[in-house]
Amino acid sequence: PPPTPGAPRRSMYDPDELAEEQRERNLRQQLNKAFRNFVQKTELVAQSEPHSSALEFDAPSRDLSFHGRALREMVEISPCRDCIVSLSENPPFVLSLDDVEHVHFERVIYGAKNFDIAFVLKASAVEPGQDEVRMVTMVPMQHLDTLQKWLVDVVEQLYTQGTRAMNWKTMMAVAREPSFYSDKDEDGEPKPIGWAFLMDSTEGGEEEEDEEEEGEAFEADEDDDDDDDDDDDD
């Protein structure tokens, strides 16, 4: 019902809800402060004698955070200096960048909304029964340039990209062959070195399309010339 004329207006927000939100903010600040103190004290102990060690804490970069499907569901994923993590949901997703041999961006198509990222693990980092490739899928396209720049500038990790989703079981069988990082195949023929073939296959496809278009254009020109010759004969 409409408010009674002259009656005081009620707040749009419940005071109890506002108080609860304020308590949550205060608790979050207290936890952040307590953890910051824990980090500082732990690093001091680790650096002091006789416990001297290279213990360091890593922190997620909120500016680089993005959403994607890791493990079972869509989560917020945050790159760090040495890893990428998603810690807000269970089970947590943690991938050490030291374990990554190569990064490939899949389904990078002009006009598409999402792309996938394949993190190929080093053979030494793969436990028995563990997948050799860790996937993060359904990443919004607006994060592509930022993530690629982060890989090159911060992680110093080269990457490739393509328009298709790859069959990684087949790919890894090829990648583990002794000649994978050679510039020649078993028959001595030149071939792309290592993961470069993922980029070469994409570029090759574009070149083939360009050649086909040029061929079609050339055929069309010939037809036009033939028509002109017929007109001249007339």
From TrEMBL:
Keywords: Chromosome, DNA damage, DNA repair, DNA replication, Nucleus, Transcription, Transcription regulation
UniProt-recorded name of the protein: FACT complex subunit
Subunit structure and binding partners: Component of the FACT complex.
Region entry Disordered, spans: 1-23, 181-234
Residue ranges crossing the lipid bilayer per the database entry: none
Pfam annotation, one family: PH_SPT16
Family listed: Belongs to the peptidase M24 family. SPT16 subfamily.
